[in-house]
Amino acid sequence: MPVLPVSVPAQVVSAPVLPPPAGLYLAPPLASQPSPAPSWNHTDTALEAVFWTTFAVDWLQTLEVARHPQWCISIPYSQELTSSGCVVTRPAQVVHPERYTEHNPLLGRHPSARKVNAYFLATGLTYYVVTRKLSTRWRRGVTLTAITLEVLAVNGNIQAGIRIR
Q1: CA pair distance 161, 31, nearest whole angstrom
Q2: According to the model, what pLDDT value does residue 131 have?
Q3: How many other β-carbons are positioned within 10 Å of the β-carbon of residue 30?
Q4: Which residue spans within the chain are E strands per DSSP?
Q5: Is the pTM higher than 0.70?
Q6: Where are the domains of the chain?
Q7: 47-68 burial, b if ≥16 CB within 10 A, otherwise e?
Q8: How far apart, in whole angstroms, are the C-alpha atoms of residue 165 and residue 57?
Q9: Per-residue confidence (pLDDT) for residue 73, from 0 to 100
Q10: What's the rounded Cα separation, in Å, for the pair 65 and 99?
């Protein structure tokens, strides 16, 4: 049987393609597909190590203060312990205990250990999630900023006499 040329109307050619029947979608929607991870190298690993180290030190220092709300500071000469638990020098030169107050407004002046832990867990998790979604340039900028803030906090704590015990 000979094949005869057939002309197809333009309406048929440009007709929309119908979706397959329900139940035939085997792949998840495109929106839930993971995006490719930004490139990661030794510099990123080193910056992460510095950030998490300073973050942990700041956390431990803040917990040290939260666990000792009664701390008073004295000039370190001939110290003795008073009945209230404050270390004083001879003659009794007690510096006001407000020297050990938290400067982070989200934590308050004298946070509990529970509040400190909740804050650091939330900020650490937020940092981790956000930096994993950023491009290399932005991730490094955020990490360097976070390191700077942590180093300032840790140094301020050391200058105030806060140690990790």
Answers
A1: 51
A2: 93
A3: 6
A4: 73-74, 80-81, 87-88, 94-95
A5: no
A6: 40-69+101-159
A7: bbebbbebbebbbbbbbbbbee
A8: 11
A9: 45
A10: 11
